[in-house]
Amino acid sequence: MTTPDHPSPAPDPAAPVSPDRIFRSFAGIAGGVLLLAIAFWLGIDALVSGHGRTPWLALAGLILVTPLVAAFTVRPAVYANDERLRIRNPFRVIVLPWGSIAVIRSRYSNEVVATSGTTYQLWAVPVSLRARKKAARQQSRAAAQASGGGRPSRLIPFAAPAGPTRAQTDRIMDDLRELAEAHENAERAQGEPTVRWAYEVMVPAVAGAVLLAILVAVG
Q: Model-level pTM?
């Protein structure tokens, strides 16, 4: 006995054609988690043990500080696939189809410049001048040893790197540039940038600031 074949559902044209590659600052996340742990420890202690207005001030402070610390440390991320670059900054989420990007550049901060001329910073990929200097020193030592001008280690045999030594954030920017060059002319990678404000961060922070101001004003 045979059963009729059911046609497979048509692919969703709006679905992304590739999974996201996610770039984040794990040092920033670790620092943010530590700051939040300290804030909650002090805040909860004040809520439980405080007297008079102290618990209310602690509550207002927690409402103000928690979203701000999370916004600048845990929240930032960059998502990239074959269609677009999505930047989650502290207070905004920017979606840039690859065709709308003019330049991806590194200065004192890592930035994306849209074809309209608007510049967006990548909070999740901070520039580390220290890491750049360290990578430059490693590359210089590797070049000196490869040319016989340095002293090779007696414990670990020298192996020349396959490519130039780069700081981690610079390698991330290289990856983003490669994705932009590979997909900037793709049909699905065209469109205008979109920006959404992160009200889920801004509203609690404003509420905490207002509550704190009222408590301080009434004395």
A: 0.76
